Amino acid sequence: MSASRLLLLGPPGAGKGTQAAILIERLRVPQISTGDMLRDAVARKTEIGLKAQAVMERGDLVPDEIVIGIAEERLRQSDAERGFILDGFPRTLAQAEALDRLLEKLGRPLQKCIAISVDEDELVARLLKRAEIEGRSDDDEATIRNRMQVYREQTEPLVNHYRGQGIAHEVKGKGSVEDVEQRILEALGG
Ligand code: AMP
Q1: Residue with CA nearest ligand 1 atom 1
Q2: What is the CA 186 to chain-centroid distance, rounded?
Q3: How far is the CA of 26 from the centre of ligand 1 (A)?
Q4: What pLDDT band is residue 129 in, cutting at 50, 70 and 90?
């Protein structure tokens, strides 16, 4: 398994975060989650956090320039030289294009995009369960449905973007965490 610059793409609740956490152990590269960075900014009440909070609570997307800025800053840190697992970024075509430009400039292009697919009712059920466990404020049903729609409209088209680059691998997100992990490992090995 040689690829170390990966993107996990998939709707909210598809298991990106869980799978990213498994992969960082195997690959020894950092997980880069803009969602985690934004939640941290909200908790610390930074300028970015204050701008992002209401948008996140509605389940809408934080403006591209903010997210691109934090992702770029993170990707330029030295621990990302060995590789990285992007989780939740990019989410729009403008973000994907900015990422392509940055990684090209750094001479470290993305190697694989793993697109995890799960049907919507299963996703909503999983997210409502996560809401109970984690108490995330963007996990009530109306917000979840909005996040799904935002995903379908703005993020799903990125699969095509990466297909065009010949690096997209589609993986079914059904079944246990281990089932999905196995499918991802197969996609990475191939
Ligand atoms: P996540 O934990 O990845 O589901 O992200 C939680 C929320 O943070 C999303 O619903 C968005 O409001 C915001 N967010 C995270 N990543 C991005 C991104 N790449 N672009 C825009 N908004 C983002």
Answers
A1: 35
A2: 20
A3: 25
A4: confident
